Amino acid sequence: MPIVDPSEFVRAMGRVPTPVTVVTTVDAAGRRWGFTAGTFNSLSLDPPLVLVCPARSASCHGAFVSADRFLVNVLSADQAAIAADFARSGHDKFAGGVMTPCEFGLPGLTTATARIACTLHAVLDGGDHSILVGRVESVATGDREPLVHYNRRFTRPADPALTPAR
Question: pLDDT by residue (tens digit) across 67-98?
């Protein structure tokens, strides 16, 4: 079997539009944790399950794999700055004050396109990431256009960059 060039794999996966989410939790000591998820998807309707994949190298990884609960904030099209902030490490991601207590008292965005509150259902091996399977306990939805990651940048679903050339 041929070896896959990592840069070509990244390039190929960049052609797959994905929703942009910020996932948050609070650890047993009350410390807030969050990250911008590169992978988020629904998994099952019965029971309602979603998956999100934090990098094993992330400083928040331990907090999420041991968390009882987490909150997925599906970002709105105008929230790219929040996504970029939560994707960076080495600073207080909550210092900007955009997060407020939401479902389960977890930090959330009241202006998100959707919020999906989960209890941790399973943690699976995902190579250099862990796969967190969350059982959906509550949802809150709005009518704002979502933020999408495509071709290594944040965009809107209606953006011409997502429309195939004719």
Answer: 999 999 999 999 999 999 999 988 899 998 88
Q: What is the pTM of this model?
A: 0.88
Domain chopping of the chain, boundaries = 6-102+112-150
- Two tokens at 101? 């207590």
Q: What would the two tokens of residue 46 be?
A: 């019965």
Per residue in 25-58, pLDDT (tens digit) is: 999 999 999 999 978 999 999 999 999 999 999 9
- Cβ-Cβ contacts under 8 Å for 103 (sequence gap 6 or more): 71, 115, 117, 137, 138, 140
| 154: Cβ contacts below 8 Å, ≥ 6 apart | 20, 80, 83, 84, 147, 148
Classified by CATH at the fold level, domain 6-102+112-150 comes out as: Pnp Oxidase; Chain A (2.30.110)
